[in-house]
Predict the structure.
Amino acid sequence: MINPKEIYTKSNLLSLFRLLMAIPVWFIMDNFDQQSVRNLVAGLCLFAVFTDVLDGYIARKFNEVTEFGKIIDPLADKVIVGAVVIKMFLLGEIPEYYFYLMIGRDILIFIGGIIVSKKLGKVLPSNAIGKLSIVVISLVLLFIMLSMDRTSLVFQAFYYGSIALVFISLFAYGYRGYEFIKKKDHGTV
């Protein structure tokens, strides 16, 4: 159960701020055909990454790791990345299959997270492969925002790497959830 006092920590407030950043980013992207707007959105996304790193650091440094934080931090990441992915899809900046892969991954992880949380009675924190996936996906989106040549070797490596990481992270999350449930059923969690 989440203690209401745990919500108002410095790290959780940063996560809430990042979550709310999705709203102005969405509307700013209405003028995405202008390079200055693309650069602004890229800057806001980099600021969101900074707040993500900062809130994790603050949570550990000041012993503010909370159940609410384990929920709001990845949720904020998913919401802001999801808003950018949806808007880029609507603007024709990313292909349909890429859109469905990104959104489908997040929906499956979200549903799986709810199932595992109900079975365990606690929220599992993010893992390294999940964090790596979101970093690589975010870099692909950033490259597109900054109008990087999509035929370049660097773009292609990150693009196809992000697709591979979608499947790897889905498998890793599924396997990890299964292992934790199995341990709980055997009384070792």
User: Anything to note?
Assistant: The CA atoms of residues 117 and 124 lie 7 Å apart. The mean pLDDT is 90. Helices lie at 4-7, 10-28, 35-61, 67-90, 96-120, 128-145, 153-185. The chain is about 80% helix and 0% strand.
